[in-house]
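Margin note from the TA: students keep mixing up input and output lines. Inputs are the sequences; the output is the structure of the whole complex. Example:
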Amino acid sequence: TQLLEQSPQFLSIQEGENLTVYCNSSSVFSSLQWYRQEPGEGPVLLVTVVTGGEVKKLKRLTFQFGDARKDSSLHITAAQPGDTGLYLCAGGGYGNKLVFGAGTILRVKS
Amino acid sequence: GAVVSQHPSRVICKSGTSVKIECRSLDFQATTMFWYRQFPKQSLMLMATSNEGSKATYEQGVEKDKFLINHASLTLSTLTVTSAHPEDSSFYICSARRPNPGQGYGYTFGSGTRLTVV
């Protein structure tokens, strides 16, 4: 069974601070995706990484995929209140399904 | 592109009744759709994989007779919660899988359905 461990579970920071969310697994994933979800809505895809060692940037968000494709991180620079939400990592296994991490609830206070 | 529409967004039903939730891919064909359940402030829990033209594949611990899934066309999957009880109250989310050139498969999620059983 493929599992993704996501940490931290909760993060409460001040506006302007930086933060990093981690996803780790003992399994190799063909791809890894990061989603952001707001209350009462479905997850919205932020990025997909597929190549070991890949780094992708989306404005203030930087995503990394580990060389061995077993781990990933999301780094947010100068967080803003609008970044508040539930962040989910999800791995595309060699089967049909996405494997989700437990999620990180981020709260950015102004 | 790649829009998934889920309906209804909210439903309140009486205990013992059945509720149907629809998931439609609006601008692409989805041979595979997924149904998730989500509790407050928690991650998504996969309930079942819906395959067009064949029986759904249920995850361990999910009652297939209680959560009926039908994927009769390439753009529509439905989840019916039968004989609903208050413990079935939850947020249900569907997603559709589509080919994503160069990146394997992409997954687009619906906006979710908040089910409250009273």
